[in-house]
Every structure is written in C-alpha cells, then in structure tokens.
Amino acid sequence: MIGDRQPGHRYLVLGICCLSLFIVGIDSTAVNLALPSIADDLHASPPQLQWVIDAYTLVLASLLMLAGSTGDRFGRRKVFQIGLVLFGIGSLLCSAAPTPELLIGARMLQAIGGSMLNPVAMSIITNTFRAPRERAQAIGVWGGVVGLSMALGPVIGGALVDIVGWRSIFWLNIPVVIAAVVLTTRYVPESRAERSRRLDPLAQLLVILLLASVIFAIIEGRSLGWTSTTVIGCFAAAATATVVLVIHESRRDEPLLDPRFFRSVPFTSAALSAILGFSALAGFLFLNTLYLQDVRGLTPLHAGLMTLPMAVATAVFAPLSGRIVGTRGPRLPMMLAGGGIGLSAALLMQVDTDTSLVYLGFAYLAFGIGFGLLNAPITNAAVSGMPREQAGVAAAIASTSRQVGSSLGVAVLPAIALANLDGPLAAGLPAASHAAWAVMLGCGIGLLVLAVAATSTPALRSRERVAAELGAA
C-alpha cells in the first residue's frame, strides 16, 4: 500500500508531485510579464492578450473535475504522466507560435495536460499520507509550492523575457517535464480508487459551456457592446447551463460534480475562497504588468524584480501557513490572507503615474503575505472529511475553483479598468484601475468573512454529516 511505504519514499513522491506543479504554476503567471513583448512581436490586441491567459485557465477549469475522476478510475500515475507529456508538447508549440491565434491554441493544449496534473497530484498525495496530521502538513507543502511558483512566475518570466525573449518561458518547461516523467515512472506507485464513479459527459459539456460563455462575454463585452445579441446570448447560455447542470447532477447516482460536497460549509467556503483569492491574484498580475511596463516604462526584468516582495513573502508565509493549519487549524491563516490582500488593494487604490516604487513594494509585500497564507487552508478544507476514494474529485473541485477565479480575474478586473480608461493607456490606466482595485478589496473582505464562517461549530458539524453520508454511499 502507498501509505505503508517508508517516510523517505513518501516524501520523494511528494517532491515529484510538487516539481511538476511548480512549472505549471510558474508558467501560468510568468506569461503575464511577457504580454507586452507578445503584443509587439505577434501584433496581438488587448483582448487577444487576455485570451492568451484565459484560454489556458478556462480549459484547465473545464477539465479538472474530469481529470480527477479519470485518475481515480484508470490510474493516477498513468493520467499524471499523460498530463506531463501533453503539457510539454503544448509548451513546445507555444514557443514556436507565429501568430496570436496559434499561441492561444497551443495554450489550450497546455491546459489539457495541466488539467491532469493538479487534481491527480493532490489525490496521489492524499493517498500517500494517511495520518491526518501528516496529510495536513503534506497538503500545506503542496499548497505552498503552488502559491510560491505562481508568485515566482513574474520574477522568472521577467528575467527570461528580458534576457532571452518571451518564447524562453515555454522552453523552461521541457527539461522539467522530461525529468518528472522519468521520476514518476520510477518512484510513484500506481493507484486507483476502490470504487470510482462513472463518467458524466453531459455534465462535462455543461461545465465547458457555462465557463466559456461567461468568460467570452466578459472579455469581448467591451468591444462587442454589453447589450449586443452575442454578449446577452452568452450570459443566457451560461444561466441555462447552470440550471440544467444542477438538475442533471441532482438526479444522477454518480455525478461529475457531486452536490453533496457543497453541503459541507468548510468545503463550500474553500471553493469560494479559491475563487476570490485567485481572482485577486490574476487581476493583480495582469494590471500590474501593464502598469509597470506600459505606464512606468520598466523593462520586463525590472518589472519582474518589482514583484520580488510578493514572491519573497509568499515563499516565507506559504510553508508557515501549512504548519499553522496542521497545528492550529485554518481560521488564522485565512483571516490574515484576507487582510493582506485587502490591504494591498487599499494601497493600490491610491496609485498614480508617478507613485513611489517603495510604496508599490509595500503593496506587493502585503499581497504576497496574504496570498502565501491562502493556499494551505483552502486545500486542507477541500479534502478534509472526504473519503480517500473521492480525493481526486474533491481536490479537482477546489482546483477548478482556483482556475475559475483566475479566469474571472483576468476577465473582470482588466474589463473594469479598460471601461474606465480615458485617453491613452500609459496616461489613463492608473486612475482607471482604481475601480478594479476596489473589487480586489471586496475579495479580501470576502475572505475574512469566509474564514469565520468555515470554521464555526455549525460549519464543522456540516462537514461531519457530509463525510458520514459520502462514506456510507
């Protein structure tokens, strides 16, 4: 059994999973620093730049739940390796893309591979560390690595773009993918759920329709017109897909998206927290990239270095958050996460065209502290109380929430800023972005509220009831 292996071997499995997810996290945020260079090289429009980011997160969010249940059914190691290979091929195609359209298509292939990594890796970790305390600490390490990789992405991306070029961001993935495939073959044992659920293709199509319609409408709404037939039709399609999905899943014995999971208040709070936190991160990275390079005139390298306070804070506080969750529970790190993100937003609401770089550094530091503390309690709440047989699906829902948040952040916050833009981007973006930072402040406040709600006595009782119901199913 996986759980009976020697501790050193178990931590090696954890390291392999973290290595694979580290490059995915770096890739997802490093591309932000390359956006101005991609725009110049491929003549990409602002909506196309948004799609370079959101095509990846949208496909990822759409397929994560399918990938989690597929790993539980057909073998977690097998699905994990397939995901690595597809991610590597997609990275290679991204590096060679001659047009924005082909780059967006290659990013979608990357995302198909990436969707097989996150939930399956979490399922492997959950089934490797079976003692509750060890599992919480391992999940804390995993969550910290994910958060750290996303925070380091802009720094590494800025350096690569400035020194080598934007295509080098994707070259970085190839050797790591090869090493991860080899190490997985040698050290990660195959595992499956003792009882996995049947595939649910209709639900999968409805999830894709729901997410794609909403994101397309938000990104293209400014250019097409918010009252245009296309945009209104997309929102109507999303609403219809939501209703049909709820009805369909409630009638299935083995749904793709099990509604019973959401009867657990901590689980639902974790999903909502992931959406809020990652919306804040994605919007923060996108808008700050434009601000630092197009408004302040910094090079990609210098823009990346400006995010160092965020990266360092995340590196310090992510593992600390895992330890706190393992010993004291999730409430404290969750509240501090909301406070850090909210404080950063309040500081950014005062930014103009010549704001001190030291002031910006404090805003980035506050965000890094908040985001560093966020991942471990989210991940722990998502899988705590769930049967190990459904670990892949539970982790996939939490991961889907992260990617939905990222997609919404890239779509909503820039849309708000661009809608308020008066004049050229370089002169008008700072003032236009204040409304977007106000939305990020709302995300921070929401995290504070959810931190209290998720750890209340009634919330914990709801988790126990759901765990008993799922265990008996």
The average pLDDT is: 84
Largest beta-sheet details: none
Give Rg in angstroms: 21 Å
Proportion of beta-strand residues: under 5%
Domain Major facilitator superfamily (MFS) profile: 13-461
Organism: Nakamurella sp. A5-74
GO cellular component, one term: plasma membrane
Subcellular location: Cell membrane
Walk me through this protein's architecture:
The chain is mainly alpha-helical and 473 residues long. The chain has two domains: 2-189 and 256-472, MFS general substrate transporter like domains (Growth Hormone, Chain: A, Up-down Bundle), CATH 1.20.1250.20; 200-255. Helix content is 82%, strand content 0%. It has helices at residues 7-42, 46-74, 76-96, 100-115, 118-128, 132-163, 168-171, 173-187, 201-224, 229-251, 265-295, 300-306, 308-328, 331-348, 357-383, 391-419, 425-432, 434-454, 457-472. The radius of gyration is 21 Å and the shape is globular. The two termini are 23 Å apart. One of its GO terms (cellular component) is plasma membrane. It comes from Nakamurella sp. A5-74. This is MFS transporter. It is found in: Cell membrane. It is a multi-pass membrane protein.
